[in-house]
Amino acid sequence: MTKLLYSTALAAGLFASLCPAMAGDAAHPTHVAKPVEKVDGQPAETVLSPELSQIAVAKGAMKLDGATGIFHSYGYQGDGPLVPAAGDQQSKTHDVEAVKTEPDKNTYLVLEGQKGADPAYDYGTHFLFQGHESAVKIDGKPQGYFTRINLDADEAHRVTLMATHDIEGQPLETYDGSTWDPFAKKLLLTAEEGKQGGVWIATLDYPSKVTTLHGVFGHASYEGVQIDKDGNIWLVEDAGGKTSKTLEKAKQPNSFVYRFTPKDKTDLSKGGKLQALQYSAPDGTPVTFHADDVDGDIKSAGIKALHTYGTALKAKWVTVHDTDKDGTEPFIAYERARAAGASPLKRPENGLFRPGKDFTEFYFTETGDTNVKTAAGREYGGFGAVLKIKQANPSADDAELSLAYLGDVAHSGVDNLAFWDGDTIAVVEDDGDTAHSQRKALDSGYLIDLKADYAKGAEPVRFIAEGRDPSATIDSALSEKGEETGFKNDGDNELTGIHVSDGNATIEGLLGMKVPTPFANGWRVFYTQQHGDNITYEIVAKK
């Protein structure tokens, strides 16, 4: 039986306890002056703030503990070689590489009693769980899975394959988001797959038992998922909108922020009420989705006001689905959100509660259009943003929506985020190959100070200037002709899975309950250099 374990004397905290001065410096890292330049055909090393270092805790080529069939490695499925063989040619009928599974958002937990494929092995007490957002398709169905990095284990036992099918025997979807629900004592996994997406719950025992909840949460492109102190589940939907035919490279606001209130927070299968956020323009008009007015939505007064510093817009939660009234048949959440008058946003992706604020402030990212040429520009959120929902308590019906940070060409495509401390958010870019080439710069990770005045020219601190590994460099070149050749793997590396946690698996350990102290008191920092070699790192204070 799995037991929850929490201690302030965790292994990763040794750096801080042995070197408190260095840990203090690491908690306030120095700005990295510039991003890593993108040069065709050239790999590049990642640059961290000088106070920081990183350790690879899992690599894409690591064989899985419990590997079976095509479920072979941490970052690859066993349907081909890990890199193209000499002289091999990509075509629509022949792939030169295995599918890269792209491990995504991380969830760190301190547990005891965890088992794996080797019944005689001690897997330790420190674990990092993640879904994988890409997979081989068989008969049109993705063959997804989720994994557990055993941080205390040797390489042969480092990454355990937790599950490949649900309890009904159906293949798992490809997963993006994850979080631990201490009320239900389940891991929540989300899939940003539209009408195939949704929320799954998974047990921590081995092998994990995975259950779908499509009649409760519905189908949508859910990615970000967090729990508040009342047991509500907040979901952030990542689905890009239609591209305008007249506004160059600009995309329609399309997806939503949701809140689910369970009837029984210890058993999500009992159903509850799903709501989505609606905000109003300064004149009081609700901002809604218009299928027949793409350009009007892109340049609406509400979208402009939302992406203006100093503007606070009235918002409220509108009901999308209630199992007491609507039953538990699967449904399409975003269609119901549109019908209910919820407000679409510029590709929101992930969100977190600000620590020390009693779950009254929820910050989330918008990725934007990931193209420097977007006609939406900065004024209409084309380069992304960090937005803030403020309300009297996490279950309140009314809220206020405002801008915390507005992206620009140099700071764009923000995706995953984590609170670094009570006043600072770590955000990482996922700007994509096109924008990388346009701005001649790869992705970066930034620390956004919520006390700073970005309206007056303050700049966030770059603490990661991501490079590009050799595999990603090859894939970037191959993907340039992907439409002609059928090459499916992504190109340049992406920053994902930024995660700051002390691993406390109790209700008191909910993200947002306590103010993080990175590199001290058991708080650890992780991220994944997705695509290419698919390496997950722990950031530590440099010795």
TrEMBL record:
Pfam families: PhoX. Residues 1-23 form the signal peptide. The keyword Signal applies. Keywords: Signal. The keyword Signal applies. InterPro entries: PhoX. This is Phosphatase.
